[in-house]
């Protein structure tokens, strides 16, 4: 079950089938030829977070995985991203620090 909360403190349950049908209808109305499901959206979200440089622990927490090894399954489909690491000894302490991401 999915719990939906409103702004006035109320909450109610939405059956997963309702969400699946809504996602399927949205994909159909947008004329997306591939199969789109809530799980595909979840997988895509996780893959994009990892490819954008978010750390695995953050993605693990967002997805609600109990074990980080479950989250690591998303790393095999994310493009390899090389971070430019700069030693603190190599930059001017007065200059602003630039990071990827």
Characterize the biggest β-sheet. Answer: 2 strands, antiparallel
Shape: elongated
Major beta sheet, strand line-up: 1-2
- Could you tell me the mean pLDDT? 81
Order of secondary-structure elements: EEHHHH
Beta content comes to: 5-15%
Class from helix and strand fractions: mainly alpha
Total strand count, please?
2
Classify the helix fraction into a percent range.
Answer: 40-55%
Q: Spans of 5+ residues with little confidence (pLDDT < 50)? A: none
Spatial extent as radius of gyration: 19 Å
How many structural units, i.e. domains?
Answer: 2
Tally the helices: 4
* Distance between the ends: 34 Å
Give an overview of the whole structure.
This protein has helices at residues 16-29, 38-51, 56-63, 68-72, and strands at residues 2-5, 11-14. The chain has 101 residues and is mainly α. The chain has two domains: 1-34, no CATH class; 37-80. A two-stranded antiparallel sheet has the order 1-2. It is elongated, with a radius of gyration of 19 Å.
Helix and strand layout, with pairings?
Layout: E1 2-5, E2 11-14, H1 16-29, H2 38-51, H3 56-63, H4 68-72
Antiparallel strand pairs: 1-2
Summarize the structure.
This protein is mostly helical. The protein has four helices and two strands.
């Amino acid at each position: 079950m999915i719990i939906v909360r409103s702004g006035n403190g109320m909450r109610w349950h939405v059956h997963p089938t309702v969400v699946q049908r809504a996602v399927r209808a949205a994909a159909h109305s947008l004329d997306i030829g591939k199969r789109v499901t809530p799980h595909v959206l979840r997988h895509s979200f996780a893959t994009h977070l990892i490819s954008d440089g978010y750390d695995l622990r953050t993605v693990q927490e967002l997805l609600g995985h109990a074990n980080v090894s479950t989250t690591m399954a998303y790393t095999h489909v994310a493009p390899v991203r090389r971070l430019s690491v700069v030693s603190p000894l190599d930059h001017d302490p007065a200059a602003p620090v630039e990071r990827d991401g």
